[in-house]
Amino acid sequence: MNAWLYLHFPHLLLDYQLALQPPEAAVKPHALVHTVAARRTLVQANQAALQQGVEVGMADVLASTLVPELSLNEHDRLRESAMLTQLAQVLYQDIAHIVLHPPQGMLCEIRSLLRLHQGFHGVLARIQARLEQWPLRYCISSGYSPLAAKLLAQSQYALLTSEVGVAKAAVAQLPIEQSGLPGQQIARLRDVGLLTLGSVMQRPRAELGVRFGRAITLYLAELAGELAPPQDFYHPPARFDERVELAAEVATWPQLLFPLKRLLQQVESFLQSHQWSTRALLIRAHHRHGPPTQVAIQFAHAVWQQADLLSLSQLHLERQQLHAPVLELSVRVQRPESRQAKRSQMFAEVNEHADSLNELVSRLQARLGESKVQSTQLQDDWRPERHGAIQAWQQTEVANANAVQRPCWLLPQVEPIHRHQWQLQWGPERIVSGWWDAAPIQRDYYVALDAQQRQGWIYHSDKGWFLHGWFS
Amino acid sequence: MGYPAQVEALLQKGWVWQGQNAPLNKAENQFISTGWHDLDQRLGGGWLQGSVNELQVQQPFIGELAVLLPLLAQPETTALWVNPPAQPYAPGLHYQQVILNQQVIVNESNNKLALWAAEQALQSRSISVVLIWSNTLSAIQVRRLQQVAEAERKLAFVITPQQREEEARAYVTRLQLQRTDNLYISVLKRRFGWPLPAFPCAVDKHLPRRRRAL
């Protein structure tokens, strides 16, 4: 049984950067170069560049002579490792045991998943389906030991079988140069005529140890799976704060939509792996100079799916202006919460109703701004302007009843009035409250009619007569 | 009533609209009672489901909210208030048995965005009534609202100052509200009949009792 799968992404950084851009960008030739002591060689190239004759390992001068429109960027190993981690987060939705082999590979243990996905090919199909969402070039290979799977994948030998014998034969075919051993060792083995891994494995191990040192016996034991070095399994981080570098400067939000889509896809897998949902995102656009543009997005209901996150974020971003071109984009998940339903009511239908009202409010708030969508609630304060406070919308429990008739409208600002234009109908009702803080009141309230026979709520205080509300 | 045979044939096809007769397709469940008997009678049974209705008010606060209170006080009514003229006051609404956490208030000075919000609400299954205060709805905007309301079978009300010129609008019902000693409603337009003159509507029974001055 081949219990290990190894995924090798030879062009990870480049593919990932292109994945963040609209598909038409990938049609142009791109390549990454690595600089060693003033020698710049190509390490990664996209399909368009390869088709035009560019090869990995070529000098950059040669490549750009061959394809003048080739766009070259510096290869950044750290960034590539960070992307591998982000990718692991995506795969973690399907595979529990992942070991990162930075910068370009990851190892998956699949024995524990065989029953869940109905066998080896079920697991494989699952991984392939997940990776299909990402335009990444990869080589996946199975192996009876972690090292065997890794060597096969790195040599682009896509061996997908659960039979150990086939995998052993394939490993034996590998040239010694691809053994992953230190260069000195390889040279010594080649000098004595051991040109493939198979020829090394056939030799008695003890004698090899005597001649080439103990390292080689350990290596062979690891390759055979007899020695299992401890694996450092990947654990999803507890927080999500990822940033991506854009291939080119971007000046408008619509152009940022594509990278944002990818980031939100990662947010979804992050939330999914923790079984969380979120009520707030912080999107930041980083500029060359100065502080980043921040957009804080609040959701009135908890969301976790990419489609919801995206449509709400889009409404938010339509209101924003970018004052400078953007180089990098980052997304942070704030206030994640566990996804279990909070049922306070007995009947599910009631909650469902409230949920969809929350959804609507989220959508309105996203487009109009949080402060413009409001609710009105009863408060435990007898001062009229605080008793029925207006606030940014939130779903609350209904407060207990109050039997006094009050107007349905309250003026945001009280209006001074002339007493003689009003006909008092009912009153006074004296309201004295708030003596404990800075806004004490002492007022006599009346229901009164104005010249047009409208019913108003007016009061008299030491400052004079004021109109405070209308009854209908 | 006897008609010539040709007219009878047209009637059979439903191509002739008859003002004086009750409409053929009028069904009880199409209407939601306004809560006011007199008004129900004049509108053929109540507010038509899936309609935008106009309330023209002589002045704000003369009783237009009282006309809608029976509808808003229904326990299943969830309403969006777009640009109300003052702050809807929780204690007063609560007294009128309006359920406070089913009222969503939107204050948006940009007319376009306000209408966008109204349209979103009409399309959401959680909102049943949309109230819009606006002075400047164009014929196109009204028609658009009416289309959405009809498709989603929702009720919308537009509260607006008295319109001077009789410009056609796609409202299903147009009412004019006036107050002297009582609230008078005249029907300027209705679905199944001719306009009607002003009649008193007893909305004051929900309001503090009126009496002579102290």
Concise synopsis of the structure shown:
The complex is a heterodimer of chains A (472) and B (214). Chain A is α+β, with helices and mostly antiparallel strands. Helices cover 34% and strands 29% of the residues of chain A.
Can you characterise this structure?
The complex is a heterodimer of chains A (472) and B (214). Chain A has helices spanning 12-19, 47-51, 60-66, 77-91, 120-132, 146-154, 164-173, 183-191, 197-202, 205-212, 214-224, 253-274, 306-317, 348-368, 384-387; strands at 4-8, 30-36, 39-45, 71-74, 97-101, 105-109, 139-143, 241-250, 276-287, 293-303, 326-338, 373-378, 388-392, 409-416, 423-433, 441-449, 455-461, 464-470. Chain A has 15 helices and 18 strands. Chain A is an alpha+beta fold and 472 residues long. In chain A, strands 14-18-17-16-15 form a five-stranded antiparallel beta sheet, with no helix packed on it. The longest helix of chain A is centred in the middle third of the chain and has 22 residues, at 253-274. In chain A, a hairpin with a 5-residue loop joins strand 9 (276-287) and strand 10. In chain B, strand 9 (173-179) and strand 10 form a beta hairpin. In chain B, the strands form two sheets. In chain B, strands 6-4-7-8-3-9-10-11 form an eight-stranded mixed beta sheet, sandwiched between helices. A two-stranded antiparallel ribbon of chain B has the order 1-2. Chain B contains six helices and eleven strands. With 214 residues, chain B is an alpha/beta fold. The longest helix of chain B is centred in the C-terminal third of the chain and has 14 residues, at 139-152. Chain B has one domain (28-201): P-loop containing nucleotide triphosphate hydrolases (Rossmann fold, 3-Layer(aba) Sandwich), CATH 3.40.50. At the A-B interface, helix 14, strand 12, strand 13, strand 14 and strand 15 of A face helix 3, strand 5, helix 4, strand 6 and helix 5 of B. Chain B: InterPro entries: P-loop_NTPase (IPR027417). Chain B: This is Translesion DNA synthesis-associated protein ImuA. Chain A: Residues 24-153 form the UmuC domain. Chain A: InterPro entries: DNA/RNA_pol_sf, SulA_CellDiv_inhibitor, UmuC. Chain A: Keywords: DNA damage.
